[in-house]
Amino acid sequence: MTRAVLATVLALGCGWAAALLVPLYEFLGEDGGSSYLPVAYGIAWTGIVAAGVVAAMLVVSKVRMRRAIGWTPLVAVPLIIESWLLGCLVALVLGSV
Questions:
Q1: SS3 labels along the chain
Q2: Residue 43 CB neighbour total at 10 angstroms
Q3: To the nearest whole percent, how much of the chain has pLDDT over 70?
Q4: Residues 52, 53, 55, 57: what is their CA dihedral angle, to the nearest 10 degrees?
Q5: Mean pLDDT of 64-88
Q6: I want to staple 84 with a disulfide (CB 3.0 to 4.6 A). Which of 1, 18, 29, 93 is the partner?
């Protein structure tokens, strides 16, 4: 149980940090235009939320099968990081076009 709580706290902390860093996309554009920001924000926020949903679904399935949860919530961490990086990449590419 301790591992599951620690893993959940770590995953939530990573999600919180990524959510706080999403507004930094504003500084990536060269021309200062913000027409690309809704696309980058949408990708990042959708990925962060989807990572939480995937982790919750895995935890629920393990509980239903009566298996130990362990470090399962940490599955969300790489998904959160990837979604933030994808949003950053979209902001960089669309900001330079």
A1: CHHHHHHHHHHHHHHHHHHHHHHHHHHHCCCCCCCCHHHHHHHHHHHHHHHHHHHHHHHHHHHHCCCCCCCHHHHHHHHHHHHHHHHHHHHHHHHHC
A2: 20
A3: 94
A4: 160
A5: 93
A6: 18
As a whole-number percent, the residues of the chain with pLDDT over 90 amount to 64
The two structure tokens encoding residue 63: 């509980």
- Are the C-beta atoms of residues 27 and 93 closer than 8 Å to each other? no
CA–CA separation, 73 vs 55, rounded Å? Answer: 5
Distance CA 18, CA 7 (A): 17
- Greater confidence, 20 or 26? 20
- Token digits of residue 26: 């504003």
- Provide the whole-model pTM: 0.86
What is the tens place of the pLDDT at every residue in 28-61?
A: 766 655 678 888 899 999 999 999 999 999 999 9
